[in-house]
Specification:
By secondary structure, this protein is mainly α. The protein has 7 helices and no strands. Helix 3 crosses helix 4 and helix 6 packs across helix 7. The two termini are 19 Å apart.
Length: 156
């Protein structure tokens, strides 16, 4: 059985992540956030480097690293602070929420298992009617799918 405690945790986290969902599909500026913000507020590379206490070449390397996607989170956080900005960081499910992700995976597992069971029953001329599939899936998930099963190997 899928854990009620984990379901509650997923729902709470989904609610927290809702604030970030509008950002899905957006891309950072081509030059990266650091360079774009620095340019927008009129801060030179030298001024920026001075605020960070590093050489201007280091700041340029940092901006290039951010634009290339190779910067570390800690470096990005410190660089943002030097611009009087704050780093916002989140990891979002590609589609839907965490609860939907788990429900979809549990359904895959149930369908795979029921397909094997139904194949055996077909051979014995005892196949279940297709209209009862959704009830079968729900019953299978309730009685057989555990949290630890969700991400183990393939559904089949």
């Amino acid at each position: 059985m899928l854990s009620v405690k984990r379901r509650q945790a997923r729902r709470a986290l989904d609610k927290h992540l809702d604030a970030y969902r509008s950002l899905l599909g957006t891309s950072p500026p081509a030059k990266g956030w650091l360079r774009s913000i620095r340019d927008a507020i009129g801060m030179t590379a030298q001024q920026y480097a001075s605020r960070r206490g590093v050489a201007s070449q280091s700041m340029e390397d940092l901006e290039k690293s951010e634009a290339a996607g190779t910067i570390t989170i800690n470096s990005l956080r410190r660089a943002a602070e030097a611009l009087d900005c704050q780093l916002v960081y989140a990891i979002l499910p590609a589609t839907g929420g965490l609860e939907q992700m788990v429900a979809s995976r549990a359904r895959e597992i149930a369908l795979s298992a029921l397909k094997r069971i139904n194949q055996t029953m077909l051979l014995e001329d005892q196949a279940l009617p297709p209209e009862s599939l959704e009830a079968q899936i729900a019953d299978y998930i309730e009685s057989h799918v555990r949290d630890g099963d969700l991400w183990r190997g393939n559904a089949s």
